[in-house]
Amino acid sequence: MLRKVGFSKVWHWGCQGVRSTASRYASSSSGSVSKRICIVGAGPAGFYAAQYILKHLDNSQIDIVERLPVPFGLVRFGVAPDHPEVKNVINTFTKTAENPRVRFLGNLSLGKDFTLDELRDRYHAVLLTYGADKDRQLNIPNENLTNVLSAREFVAWYNGLPGFENLNPDLSGSTLTLLGQGNVAVDVARIVLSGADLLKNTDITEYALEALSRSNIKKVLLVGRRGPLQAAFTIKELREMLKLPNCVTTWRPDDLHDLEEALPNLPRPRKRITELMMKSLSEQTAQQTSSVNSSGSNKFQPIFFRSPVNVIGTDRVEAIEYAVNELVDNRAIPTDEREIIPTDLVCRSIGYKSVNVDSALNFDERNGCVSNASGRVLKQTLTGSDQTIDDIEDKYEKGLYASGWLATGPTGVILTTMNNSFGVADLICKDFANNVIRVKEAKPGLDAIGKRVVTWEGWKLIDAEECRRGEPKGKPREKIVKVDEMLSIAEGQ
């Protein structure tokens, strides 16, 4: 439910003081004082950390605070709608959230509803996991022309992230260019080229489904600055593109000419994806030789060794000018050669970055993440006799941690985030066990009197309503995209 009262009037902790038989880290402090931990961010990083702490730290209570009224972060708003199996992890997260030692506090924002100093005063430990929700820029001329978007915005649009429902990408042209070759870019390519019929039974938003049903895009270019051996997409995503109905994948043979020679020395995962590229190229050559007509099909074309240097157009994008690169020591080095490739729509997919939401946080603006060492947040002002981080004695903010993309940058998949969060959660458990974090007195947790807070029961009302709206359409859910509407439902209105 949603409440406008202090938490002390709403919440009743269960199992306080119960010692878990699974615990590895028994506290040396009095068992009567619960270890109170706040996790800021209800995405995979936050839930995995909570899961680990519940299992390994006895007599602990966890608040998971989320700026949106709904949980699950990138699992809900980042995973492609045609990958429902990846979203099954929500079942595990739900079990964590329904543990009596955990409470979910939705619609509360760090830097807006409370400060970092307030959190640190009201909890024994604070773990920041609020992710990366801004885009890295190309920093090239005309980057802000109409029809130049980011893949992050496009994904947020079709996945129903509040604030992006009115993005209305222009799909009237025939060619989409994706700048970047990670799995996010491939997801966008697949969604655009799948067509509405293949997506109508997923949890894609209805407005995106309608727009895609009217789309004129027939060709998607996937452009990377390095070569096929450095492509960031995984074999699963490439295989899906190669098997996509009514879609032909075309390669530039010159991009792949030296793959066979490199094959024997590649590690197994890279070898498998390279063999798949070579197989696809050979099939493409056979089709061209036999004059197979694929003119009516959609086209997916990976392009390598190209870096965008200029967006060409007046009112809107018309083409991209690229520098032709050479690979030197695994780095893309631009040559003087240029290539111009027409396009009607551009989505850059060159990475996300986090933002600093509180001035008290030691934040690396250049890299877009919290300054940390293995998850422990570093002090803004370091003290010690030496300037190298390993020799500075007093370098960590006690009881303050970061994990997930906020700490590492936007790398890896959900499994990568799980391993990172488990590692940071383990540090938290050890710091309690070793009295690095001293539990001398009870901590009150957040005071949100007057705030519109969505509880887990409130989320369940939103969840049930989304499932109800999706059922007549044959969809698992129809996501609600307006925050005010979410809040009204959570209030039972």
From TrEMBL:
InterPro entries with a match to the protein in the record: FAD/NAD-bd_sf, Ferredox_Rdtase, Ferredox_Rdtase_adrenod
Keyword Oxidoreductase belongs to the record: yes
One GO term (biological process): cholesterol metabolic process
SUPFAM superfamilies the record matches: Nucleotide-binding domain (SSF51971)
GO cellular component: mitochondrion
Residues where FAD binds: A45, E66, L74, L110, W405, G412, V413, I414
Pfam families: NAD_binding_8 (PF13450)
Top EC group: oxidoreductase
Localization per record: Mitochondrion
Keyword match Flavoprotein: yes
Reactions catalysed, as given in the entry: 2 reduced [adrenodoxin] + NADP(+) + H(+) = 2 oxidized [adrenodoxin] + NADPH
Binding site for NADP(+): Q181, G182, N183, V184, R225, R226, E237, G412
Sample GO molecular function, one term: oxidoreductase activity
Keywords tagged on the record: Electron transport, FAD, Flavoprotein, Mitochondrion, NADP, Oxidoreductase, Transport
Family stated for the protein in its record: Belongs to the ferredoxin--NADP reductase type 1 family.
Name recorded for this polypeptide: NADPH:adrenodoxin oxidoreductase, mitochondrial
